[in-house]
C-alpha cells in the first residue's frame, strides 16, 4: 500500500463547503483512479490534512500525473473556491510506502457510542 499526505488552508466560513467537495472528490478519484479513499483531519492550527491510501505508488503516480481530474466541474469549483492556501508546489507533503498496517477498519454500520 502507498500513502500520499496533503494539506490545505480553507477560507473562514467555507469549511463545510470544502469538506463536502473533498468527500465528493475523494469518491470520484476512488472510482476513476483506483484509490482506496482518504481520511481528512484538522490540525490544531486550522489546516486540513488529507491522508490518501493507494494500492501502490504506480497507481497513485498515474492519477497524480493526470492531476486527478474527474468529471464533475461543480465539485472541483467548490473545492478550489474554498481553498485559501496550499503548499507552493501543490505536491503532497509526504508520499510513503506502508510497511506495517495495524489500523482497525470500522465497518460502515459502526457508529460512535453516545458520550464517547
Automatic annotation (TrEMBL):
Keywords: Monooxygenase, Oxidoreductase. Transmembrane segments: none annotated. The keyword Oxidoreductase applies. InterPro entries: ABM_dom, Dimeric_a/b-barrel. Residues 1-64 form the ABM domain. GO terms for molecular function: monooxygenase activity. This is Antibiotic biosynthesis monooxygenase. It comes from Sphingobium quisquiliarum P25.
